[in-house]
Fold this sequence. Notes:
By secondary structure, the protein is of the alpha/beta class. The chain has eight helices and five strands, in the order H-H-H-E-E-H-H-E-H-E-H-H-E. The chain has helices at 2-17, 36-44, 61-72, 106-122, 128-134, 154-167, 190-198, 202-207; strands spanning 80-84, 90-95, 142-147, 179-183, 213-214. Strands 2-1-3-4-5 form a five-stranded mixed β-sheet, with helices on both faces. It is globular and about 45 Å long. The chain starts with a helix and ends in a 6-residue tail after the last strand.
Amino acid sequence: MGCGNAFHANLERVREAQISNGKALSNPAKLPEDSPLKVKYREIYPNAFKIKIPEPRLPNQELFQVLKEVKESEPNAKNSVAFLDPFGNLVLCLPDTFDKSPVHTAFMNITQNYAKICFKLMNDLATREQANEYLDHPRNGTFVFLHAPNPNSTRTIMTWGAYGSTIAETVTQIFPANFQYYCPPTKGTLHELRSTIMNLPPFYRKKAQLSVMQVAPEFT
């Protein structure tokens, strides 16, 4: 109960700090290759804005292969996650990096790096205008996991928390969902995974409306 009270007390502050443009954005893929936005994201993921998925909510075989290659690039990784912006641009695709920290899951690496770079660009007068015009809030993008999170892992509970903090408010429900996966969990079942979601606090079920769905079968 104490944790819940502390969470709700800070929730509005978090929401106010989130990016919310409220206007149509331009496609960042069309920026020059030496633009600050592309340069900064490519410091984290060299292929940022180089790969485009025709339909951002319909991940394809190309993204599946990218996720597998990224996971295999990190010896201790159990998973990898991609983030697509509303234009279908692959902004980031990162693996777990447990050699750095046991909490450095692929999803944590994605959401933290996206936010850190965006914050730096928005707080620099030289790049603020470009960031405002080309960077969208992550709630409007699509997170794609190679494997669905393992239901009985404490890291999965952490992932749900990080997802809620990333989204911060009600998500417009668009089908397909903005949280997708190609393969089932490596441990546990999808039924157990859905059960963990249903037992989360109301914010995740009613506000963030956390829902995970599998990518179209032909790509799994």
